[in-house]
Design goal:
The chain contains 14 helices and 15 strands. It has 405 residues and is of the alpha/beta class. The protein has two domains: 154 residues, Aspartate Aminotransferase, domain 1, CATH 3.90.1150; 233 residues, Type I PLP-dependent aspartate aminotransferase-like (Major domain) (Aspartate Aminotransferase, domain 2, 3-Layer(aba) Sandwich). It has a seven-stranded mixed β-sheet, sandwiched between helices. Strands 1-2-3-13 form a four-stranded mixed β-sheet. A hairpin with a 4-residue loop joins strand 11 and strand 12. Helix 3 runs antiparallel to helix 11. The chain is globular. The structure holds pyridoxal-5'-phosphate. The site of pyridoxal-5'-phosphate has 15 residues, from helix 5. Belongs to the class-III pyridoxal-phosphate-dependent aminotransferase family.
Length: 405
């Protein structure tokens, strides 16, 4: 044990609850160390991480190449602000643009900021390039979306828990059923700036839209001069077996929002990447962030890009994802009502007659697997992409036991 004060799990939890705002409902486990796909609690018990920090830990805990990049940067330079150039920023932007096949990069910190930035850019583009009348721009979004927690973003959330009592809300958003291309078409008008959606909806329970949906959205956007914005903050960066979840559809977005795994689970790094003529509407002073693109973020981000360039993680997600989905399919009808997903990412709907998501999460914790429900009856499974095949088996066996226990 290397922590200063040895304490009981219950003491840590009691302190969290006494002093920390209650905006989360964590599982009762207190983690002290992490390595690869494994974490260790304050009592030395080990657990397989089957959540990966909501995909922020795609490369596992403390990937050596990422930790090395962070250490080296910490020993040289941490922050300059964008008032000056630094020797990491341009390289990060260039390398990220290169690996994503895009033309320009706008760096921010959190996912919500990337989405906010994309909304601002799309509106500005609508007024200055498309010719939409001042303050009339509309953005089409999907039911059950999750794009973050700012006041503008929760303005178009239809989840009452995320939305209620945060008004007055930001106008200018039109909600259509997720996966319904006809509804997107019907919602497009002369003032439409953009369609903003997740290629696969994460928080909603890993919802994959019908085949052909994204091709139709792309065609509609081209036809009506509307920007297509893909929020790949959770679905992107190798999770589904490709760099972007949209790549499975052979469709390119005009803008992508990236976050979570972009910071390697070490620092918050987010970005909007895409067309230079769209991001080019931003001129000096019109948008910014003190930490956005700071040297530590860029150094870690460059190391993340380096890992993505090898293709190793995409290949693992494909191969191991097939295995995971094969194993999960065996549970259908045995306590599992439905399984969705792609790559190393699955939404598992628990049979309403079996257990709640929370009960299953607690059972799994006792069996050394950390998972978290999203909504009442859905488990979201997203192990680090460094996980091994037999570790997946171990976790799925535990899940099978949880459902029949
Ligand atoms: C997590 C998430 C966000 C918000 O990211 P934060 O870093 O928590 O602000 C936005 N969009 C999607 C799709 C996400 O999964």
């Amino acid at each position: 044990m290397d922590q200063g004060e040895l304490q009981e799990t219950a003491e840590y939890i009691a302190r969290d609850e006494r002093w920390g705002a209650h905006n989360y409902h964590p599982l009762p486990v207190v983690i002290a160390r992490g390595e690869g796909a494994w974490v260790t609690d304050v009592d030395g018990r080990r657990y397989l991480d089957f959540l990966s920090g909501y995909s922020a830990l795609n490369f596992g805990h403390r990937h050596p190449a990422l930790v090395r990049a962070a250490h080296e940067q910490l020993d040289r330079l941490t922050l300059t602000s964008r008032a000056f150039h630094n020797d990491q920023f341009g390289l990060f932007c260039e390398e990220l643009a290169h690996v994503t096949g895009t033309e320009m990069v706008l760096t921010m910190n959190t996912g919500a900021e990337a989405v906010e930035s994309a909304i601002k850019v799309a509106r500005k583009w609508a007024y200055e390039v498309k010719g939409v009348q001042t303050d009339a721009a509309e953005i089409i979004v999907a039911t059950n979306n999750f794009h973050g927690r700012t006041t503008t973003i929760v303005s178009f959330s239809d989840d009452p828990v995320a939305h209620d009592n945060y008004g007055p809300f930001t106008p200018g958003f039109i909600t259509v059923p997720y996966g319904d291309a006809d509804a997107v078409e019907a919602a497009i008008g002369p003032n439409t700036a953009a369609v903003l959606m997740e290629p696969i909806q994460g928080e909603a329970g890993v919802i994959v839209p019908p085949a052909g949906f994204w091709r139709s959205v792309r065609d509609l956007c081209d036809e009506h001069n509307v920007l297509m914005i893909a929020d790949e903050i959770q679905s992107g960066l190798a999770r589904t077996g490709k760099l972007f979840a949209l790549d499975h559809e052979d469709v390119r977005a005009d803008l992508y929002t990236l976050g979570k795994a972009l910071g390697g689970g070490i620092v918050p790094v987010s970005a909007v990447v895409g067309r230079a003529d769209v991001l080019g509407v931003l001129k000096p002073g019109q948008h910014g962030s003190t930490f956005g693109g700071y040297p530590v973020a860029c150094a870690v981000g460059r190391a993340v890009v380096g890992l993505l360039e090898t293709g190793e993680f995409q290949a693992r997600a494909t191969e191991l994802g097939e295995h995971l989905h094969g194993r999960l399919a065996e549970l259908e009808g045995k306590g599992v009502a439905a399984v969705r997903g792609r790559g190393l990412w699955a939404g598992v709907d628990i049979d309403p007659l079996a257990k709640t998501g929370r009960e299953v999460s607690m059972f799994l914790r006792d069996r050394g697997v950390l998972c978290k429900e999203t909504h009442e009856r859905t488990l979201r499974i997203a192990p680090p992409l460094v996980i091994e095949r037999d570790e997946i088996d171990q976790a799925v066996d535990a899940l099978a036991d949880a459902l029949t226990a």
